[in-house]
Amino acid sequence: MSAPDAPDRTAGRRADAAGPAGERPTPPPADRGFGARLMTPLLLGSLLNPINSTMIATALVAIGRDFRVGAADTAWLISAMYLASAVGQPTLGRVADRIGPRRVFVAGTVAVCAAGLIGALAPTFALLVVSRIVLGIGTAAAYPAAMALLRAESRRVGRPTPRSVLGRISLAALASAAVGPALGGLLAATAGWRAVFAVNVPLALLALVGALAWLPADRDTRAAGGAAPSDAAARGGLDPFGIALFASALTCAMFFLLRLDAPRWPLLAPTAALTAALVWWQLRHPHPFIDLRMLARNRALTLTYLRHGLTYLVIYCVLYGYSQWLEQGHGLTSFHAGLVMLPMSGAAAVCSLAGARTKGIRAPLTVAAACLTAGSAVFLLLHGTSALPVLLGAGALFGIPQGLASTGNQAAVYAQAPADGVGAAAGLQRTAQYLGAITASGLIGLWYGQRATDPGLHAIALTGVILGGLLLALTLADRTLRTAGGRTFD
């Protein structure tokens, strides 16, 4: 931790030379540079994506009734946003690394405002899907831009980003995702389902005003006399063809994964062809959209993406599968099912705070993998007549890995990413998470079919046990995590 101290000592010597010895400035407090003015807009922006991912769930029935479409069609309101976010996160992270995170953050909040208005006024279902796509792109800007802004602020103040600051970003996402279904249900019941879209307008405006007022201006890389090599690289092309190939391959994969109960095997051919073309193009482009050579060299970062994707594959399987089973397999109302899920959300929030206070990375990720495996095993014991305390305990146990894995993997990406590419690296982390979510949707459809049953829940739980065990083995075998906790986040 000695490297970050050097800028502070240099600054102190300059201050002594500039003024009398008796006017030496007071050492900065621990969180100077990461205070409320910087964090408020970042936290507001970071909650927009997860809250919109879950808030729509309790409005789907009303939307389908008004537009006279079925559940298969309303599912596109979820899938469209996941797809847009999966492509948008690394794309906008790359843009943030090149033109500045503040500009990207501001543009994202403007897009969220537009999406809220389009959805609130949409006369057709197709336009409603368009609003969700725009919403996915707009909300995708906040997280990678926030990570890039924190890295820039760390350099400015000459000290690493406090782990607690990263924990707040993670907690904002977890907490907003947890309250999303309840907020969506409340809005739909009191003001109609269009309020679920309209509420984005005031939320985004608050984030926009805070960003314009408090976020530091982006550094101008076009200084006279030329730029440093890293800056020149940062201003490289955005590789639109690579982005198009990535989006096309991901779209084909999503269409296949969403119907694992009735596999569309012909989709595997274009998915494989587009993936091969993407790899070929990325290896030859001077500034690739996804730097495959960097990922091959940076084994630690690649393993972090794999762990994060596997973790959220299991989490989304249980999160959405459990809630459906509580209603259809256990006979609870949607309101009571939401109450039973509260201990899971509460445990995730508490463990997110605990993970933010932990200096290391390997230990919390190991505990998360172990709890993921144990929690999935507990779900193997549930059945339609299980007592309420058992249901609550099972959910609470499964909430532990959500909080620890979120903060642990976030800290790992921040430490392992290239210094001039943290925005794109953070975006790819979220892409891995969304791929887990899309795959989980397909597995839930495969195991449940038309209705959530005990055997279906047990199949989901067994999948979680197997993948959780694999995740635990990967975590224990990853030697890079032993030193990642001691790296500086600058």
From TrEMBL:
Keyword Transmembrane helix: yes
Transmembrane segments: 42-63, 75-92, 104-127, 133-150, 171-189, 195-217, 238-258, 264-283, 304-323, 335-356, 456-477
Compositional bias annotation for Basic and acidic residues: 1-16
Main location: membrane
Domain Major facilitator superfamily (MFS) profile: from-to ranges: 38-481
Domain of life per record: Bacteria
Protein name: MFS transporter
Species whose genome carries this gene: Streptomyces lunalinharesii
